[in-house]
Write a structure and sequence with these properties.
Helices cover about 70% and strands about 0% of the residues. With about 325 residues, the chain is mainly α.
Length: about 325
């Protein structure tokens, strides 16, 4: 079995197992937290394409996620666009934004890309929190264009509340699962195909790759656009799930948590971000009651994983597999 078919088969098996969760538990909290896991897993799976596979140290992913959430909320609130259509439109707008960011980063590498993308995210955050001028005057009071510090709410929903009543969150669960499955399948096809090879060549030896005719301009914009589509879609789904969007989606602590998910799971590998997202969300639940000690607890957990497993948990599994099967070899990237 080829690695592509193997990974697609694993995806199908995991999706089928995940589809049984709402039938195995009647606890709403578990279902909604798993839905949140789907959202973050989509983000880190796509961020992994940019950072882990293509080697572009972009920190703009949360800004793209926030842009998807805000665009969905604003389309629903100001123009009454159905949320499903608003999510799709938001994803397309986020792709355009990501291409602009990609063009700005073309002449930069390494920490300079990180600084530029982080500055763009901070600029968007300041634009929103400092937006205090009234754009409309609903009965609830002055409403800035971007909602200001209080954010935007009452912009509609996906219609499952009216259709299913108190069980609407189960429909959201399955929608999130479908979106994650699509994001993983796209990630697998890219990493296992010619695009993945081109991204990895530009990451590992850009000079040689470009001398062989691989265009850095073309492929960098490709990876920015593909990852941005699902990131924007995840942002729109986040808005629909929580029915409110505010500046907290730009949180630096959330960005660092998502970055940690990729590092713990294994950068550049297909299942690394998903595994890291699962483990760190479980760890976050475990330290949630610690209050001010929560961030310290997460930091200690991160150290305990990163120090012994420098290539992430998937890298550790690869090493273990090689020891158990010395006559076999695994592909280092994407396994």
């Amino acid at each position: 079995m080829t690695p592509l078919r193997r990974d697609l088969l694993v995806t199908v098996i995991l999706v089928v197992l995940a589809a049984t969760v709402p039938y195995l538990t009647s606890t709403r909290y578990i279902v909604t937290q798993t839905t949140l896991f789907f959202i973050w897993a989509i983000v880190v799976t796509q961020w992994n394409l940019v950072l882990g596979v293509a080697g572009i140290f972009s920190l703009a992913q949360m800004a793209l996620f926030a842009a998807g959430a805000y665009t969905t909320a604003m389309l629903g609130y100001y123009w009454g666009v159905p949320i499903a259509l608003a999510m799709l439109a938001a994803a397309i707008i986020v792709v355009i934004l990501s291409v602009i960011i990609g063009l700005a980063c073309l002449r930069l590498r390494g920490p300079y890309v990180a600084l530029l993308t982080l500055a763009i995210a901070q600029m968007l955050y300041l634009l929103i929190v400092n937006d205090t001028d009234c754009f409309t005057n609903p009965p609830s009071g002055c409403m800035p264009l971007f909602g200001g510090v209080r954010g935007i709410s009452r912009f509609g929903d996906l219609g499952f509340r009216a259709l299913l009543g108190s069980k609407w969150y189960i429909a959201h669960y399955y929608l999130g699962l479908v979106l994650l499955a699509l994001a993983i399948i796209v990630s697998i096809v890219i990493i296992r195909g010619p695009l993945g090879l081109a991204f990895q060549a530009l990451r590992d030896n850009p000079g040689y790759a470009m001398s062989r005719g691989i265009s850095r301009f073309k492929y960098q914009l490709w990876v920015f656009a593909v990852s941005a589509f699902f990131t924007g879609l995840a942002g729109g789904f986040y808005a629909a799930q929580f029915a409110v969007v505010g500046p907290t989606v730009f949180s630096l602590s959330q960005l660092l948590l998502l970055l940690s998910m990729m590092v713990v799971g294994g950068l550049g590998r297909i299942w690394g971000p998903v595994l890291g997202a699962l483990l760190l969300m479980l760890a976050d639940e475990g330290v949630r009651e610690l209050g001010d000690w929560r961030d310290i607890g997460l930091g200690l957990i991160l150290i305990l994983f990163v120090v012994p497993f420098r290539r992430g948990l998937t890298g550790a599994f690869e090493d273990l597999w090689r020891r158990l099967r010395p006559g076999k070899s695994l592909t280092a990237a994407g396994s």
